[in-house]
Amino acid sequence: MADPRGRRSRPGGRPPRRRAPDDPPRRAAYDVLRAVRVDDAYTNLVLPGALRAHGLSGRDAAFATELASGTLRRRGTYDAVLTACLDRPLAKVEAKALDVLRLGAHQLLSMRVPVHAAISTSVDLARDRAGQGAAGFVNAVLRRVAERDLGAWVRQVAPDPATDPVGFAAVAHSHPRWVVERLREALGDRAEEVDDLLAADTDAPAVVLVARLGRSTRAELPGEPTRWSPFGAVSGGGDPAGLPAVAEGRAGVQDEGSQLVALALARAELADSSGADERWLDLCAGPGGKAALLAGLAGQAGAVLTAVERQPHRAGLVRRALTGSPGVGGVVVADGRRPPFEAGSFDRVLVDAPCTGLGALRRRPESRWRRRPEDLDVLVPLQRDLLDAALDLVRPGGVVVYATCSPVLAETRDIVGRVLLRRDDVLLEDARPLLGVPDADGPLAGTVQLWPHRHRTDAMFVALLRRA
After folding, report:
1. Is 284 marked active-site?
2. How many Cα atoms sit within 13 Å of 2 on the Cβ side?
3. Reduced to 3 states, what is the DSSP secondary structure of residue 414?
4. pTM for this entry
5. For domain 255-467, which architecture applies?
6. What is the pLDDT of residue 241?
7. Which of 282, 308, 295 is closest to 252 using CA atoms?
8. Within the chain, how many helices (H) and strands (E) appear?
9. Domain residue spans in the chain?
């Protein structure tokens, strides 16, 4: 007998499994979360591929981007909310279902998606990716999430701000507790700004473009000019890869803070005006953004830039970024702690040191969940060795810029302070006039510390050191 509902029955009378409606934006966002979870991928690197794979552009691409990136930024808050809605520990939830729950929570609590649409599309996504059982589970949990708005949930699940302000900030602004503590310490006597800083970390950053000197000009870039870098523009929207200058490698995407690091090295005065200013070095060049800007600046000054990168695949990215740039002296695959150069053979050296990246959490939302306090035990000795190597490589009168995309004092003040105590051939110069950024005093006199909430840049630290 035919199925009275008009569908062919399976043996045993069960109806066929309902096919989930096609929903490319949410599928793309899910694929990004899965790549971050399974492959340790970086959101900004896998997102463009996910958008292309699902054929997304315009508003759909913007929706998928906010859904994926926003979910990862606010994951800590959503996990606290989901925990309150579950009858089991979060660790016991299947990973695929948890990804869907987080995406659903972001739509319910932080996006203008109607409740019924957020829940029904999440149920369909769970059914498609994790099975019918996961679909029912997601439906039940998200209905509980929808009972309150974000503010009400935070008041319920976060610690009391009167007795545990750090714990409250960690949940309310979606940062691990240890990160809140380190950032608050880095703010020094302005620790009351920590909520503003954490909120800036959680907001989606603007896309900033950079014209690579000698290959393009800022006039080719759409958007408003950056405030302090003469080569940058704040994009008004759209996919940067669609711009001819970016597609051809003559321009790139680069935060204004990173542009200022390169400018600090190029603008510094050499103490010995009769000496040469011909050889510049980027000691930690991968993936090549700062090197590309530096090469143009070097070519303009009649110098050449040599780039060093330890990992071969990242060295390939540097070569690609430098293709066509004036002032390129080559890319060398080597350990920056033991580079194959003679002491005193460079006039200017940049050390953009590997770091925790806690100053770039706006653009790398997954980093806050990957980093651990013990990472500093590995990174700090590496930073010390790289800075020592750079100071040995620069000639007397030459300059070294030490930079990190982290404001953590162990990676900034303590690294530079230790060098000044150990070496009597090194002077700390004032980097602030080179950049002209107001309200950017660093933790040591003369150093620069940028902040997302004050300057709308990554929290770059810059110190200018000179060989005496």
Report:
1. no
2. 4
3. helix
4. 0.91
5. 3-Layer(aba) Sandwich (3.40)
6. 84
7. 295
8. 20, 12
9. 24-145, 158-202, 255-467
